Amino acid sequence: MLEELLNFGSIVIADIVLSGDNALIIGMVAASLAPELRRRAIIFGMVIAALMRIGFALIATNLLDIPGLLLLGSLLLFWVCWRLYGEIRSNIDAEAALALATADSATAGYTGAPRRSLGSALIAIGVADVSMSIDNVLAVAAIARGNEELLIFGLGLAILLMAFAATLIMKLLSRFPWVSWLGLAVLVYVAGEMFHRGIFDPGTGILAYAQGTGAT
């Protein structure tokens, strides 16, 4: 019971601290549009992010069972931690909060005649969101360890946070940086534990796989 609660808490923290990139990209792209297009860009941008997370989750849950890929996933997650460390130091959450606030204001950002189509803006959001979706799904899948309830909870929470609380979360993280540092600590632990399983796990660890191959 305690372990399950810790896993739920870890997923909540991971979802919160990994939402900064999404909020910044969507806010910046939306702010570059004419005011009448911004709301649709934000909504459609959130939908794209949600669909990508669902798609990558379906792939990740199957691939992480293949020997060697769990280890690769841990290395990717360590890279996510390093990138997050840089973002915390550069206060990206404050930039994201400002970008979303600008996009939500009819008098801020670009206010001239439309010079960029909604379609081109969504393509920019989609391309930028590929790596961010992988980051989020990888972290949640690593914590869930094949538990479908945890995985669904983590993805659902990430989507809800992006859709309804992105600006609030960015302001929260900007005001209380320790939350971001706590999230980074959680992700480093998850990556380390994933790295250990990627080597020694009897089912998916490369060491066990190598021993099994040698025995045959």
TrEMBL record:
Membrane topology, as annotated: Multi-pass membrane protein
Record key words, sorted: Membrane, Transmembrane, Transmembrane helix
Main localisation: membrane
Location(s), subcellular: Membrane
Source domain of life: Bacteria
Transmembrane segments: 12-34, 41-60, 66-85, 150-169, 176-192
GO cellular component: membrane
Pfam families assigned to the protein according to its UniProt record, in alphabetical order: TerC
PANTHER family attached to this UniProt entry: MEMBRANE BOUND PREDICTED REDOX MODULATOR, SLL1022 PROTEIN
Family statement: Belongs to the TerC family.
NCBIfam families: R_switched_YjbE (TIGR03717)
Protein name: YjbE family integral membrane protein
